[in-house]
Write a structure and sequence with these properties.
Blueprint lengths: L1 H24 L55 H5 L1 E2 L2 E2 L9 H14 L1 H4 L8 H4 L11 H4 L3 H10 E2 L2 E2 L7 H18 L8 H7 L5
Antiparallel strand pairs: 1-2, 3-4
Length: 211
């Protein structure tokens, strides 16, 4: 019995020492001159070519391989010209590529107030803070030229800009560009209505009397 106990103690000690070693090897919260021991490498260290390094087994000896013809990165396929360009058969689309609903208009209002209102104003008259404090003339969105634009052209202007207005393709996602275009069209309709053209229930809810 005594011999059996004595045999177990060294084994326990070795197991504890091994466990402690594993724990300490995983401590990465301290500053070391050398990288910590990576027991489970998970392919961290592989033989590879560096940038611009010569690769002798390719005919052109380029380690940085050119992209195969026709390859498109995932999420970057733009094969719907209506959605991504605002055009159908080369002409500006007069329809939205998605359903027009309250959520779309709410999103459009939110994005418009962030990106457009500082110049065009809350109602689109071009009388906001930026043009009023400078010599920069911002056209009203309610001029006949703007009102007659197809909604696809409004989308294109949001994405690519026009005249001195820069494009916002980098800042505004595709669906949000359409939301802004839809909201601008709603603004144009709202500013051109007479009181008699407003539905009675909406006028009553807003406290707008009829003459």
């Amino acid at each position: 019995m005594t011999r059996s106990l004595n045999m177990k103690n060294p084994i326990r000690g070795l197991l504890l020492l091994g466990a402690l070693t594993l724990i300490l090897s995983g401590c990465r919260g301290f500053t070391f001159e050398k990288p910590p021991i990576d027991l489970i490498q998970n392919m961290h260290f592989q033989t590879h070519f560096g940038a611009q390094q010569e690769a002798p087994f390719w005919e052109d000896r380029r380690s940085m391989r050119p992209r195969p013809e026709g390859v498109v990165a995932r999420g970057h396929l733009r094969n719907d010209s209506h959605l991504y360009e605002g055009r159908i058969d080369g002409a500006y689309a007069s329809t939205l590529p998605m359903e027009l609903d309250e959520d779309l208009l709410d999103r459009g209002q939110d994005r418009y107030e962030i990106f457009c209102a500082p110049c065009h104003g809350a109602a689109g008259h071009g009388d906001a803070a930026i043009p009023s404090r400078s010599n920069w003339v911002v056209p009203t969105l309610h001029a006949e030229r703007s009102r007659s634009m197809p909604v696809g052209q409004l989308y294109d202007i949001v994405a690519n800009g026009v005249n001195t207005m820069p494009g916002y393709a980098e800042q505004i996602r595709v669906n949000d560009r359409w939301a802004i275009a839809a909201y601008v069209r709603a603004l144009q309709v709202s500013q051109g209505l007479t009181l008699d053209e407003i539905p009675a229930d909406i006028a009553a809810a807003q406290g707008w009397g009829r003459r």
